[in-house]
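Sample pair:
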Amino acid sequence: MRDRIYWLGWQLIFAGSPNHFWNIINYFGSAEDAWNARREDLLEVENITQHIADKIIAIKKTIDLDREAERIYKHGVDFMTYDDVCYPYLLKQIFDPPPVIFVKGNINSFKDNAVAIVGSRNPTAYGITAAKRIAFELAEHDVCVVSGMARGIDAAAHSGALESKNGSTVAVLGCGVDIAYPRENACIMEEIVQKGAVISEFPLGTPPKAWRFPVRNRIISGLSKIVLIVEAGDKSGALITADIALEQGRDVMAVPGNIYSKMSKGPLKLIKQGAKPVTETADILEELGIESLFAGIDDNVQAAGNLKLSELEQKILKVLSEQPCYVEDLFEAVQAPSQEILAAITFLEVKGIIKRSRGQMYSTTFK
């Protein structure tokens, strides 16, 4: 057990750069022996230069391991090492797992059945609706939803999972777990701590920096069996996560969207490259080998209700079940913000519940 404190010490030195850590541990055999090593011994380790060795020695002199551990616990934070029983099994399988993870929340929140949902920080209403709905339905099936707590799709995914009574979600940060970033997600962060966990490989107080977010993406995908992309532009960080996931041997899936929307370029590109399209949560559950609670439902209004449509979607469906309507008529009949109505229409169309004919007229797909 005492060796854990030395793992913590090395994490304080190499957070975000695990390769040096693993080279050192593999050379000396234990974190404690490595911690007590002399400068000349460190130079024998692969890729440890004189500059790095000097830096290690200098930083070690500034660290009081017991005091640091006490400070972590006072913040209501725990930490797990790669050798701990509770360390996530899936994360152990990646090439460069974080040696230490700082956890705020339930340290047992990690599940083998986990799906990462990531996407644009500036999504459309459709993207937010899709992310929340899919996350909620996954959580209803006891699947842990993993994301990065960024604004946009990430926040929507966490929110959707939190709406499930027994659902859990894990947020992976690119800063210390004592920092709510972005600040606007502070309330979501508090909820996640209550029903899941906020984690990071970066020590307390580590500020968010641009380079830390691509680094943390490998943990988001590493914790998950499937990575789902919901809306992403050409250069979105979500596509970086998708690339990392493929390198880790994870499945990548994508939610198709409007072909004229720039936010659909990322998902549609992935689908062209072989990612499986997701038009309903059952597509993901099937990949996980989980039978959907919604399987075998007939295409009728009652069936759509059983699919747990939102209140707005149910209103739209009720209107269309009586007669086909132009989108302008729906704006008048439903009395909701036009952007939200358009998002709900797109979602219902992708799910195959309604269809569009020429002239922007919509109708149900069932008799």
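The chain has three domains: 3-74, 114-288, 301-364.
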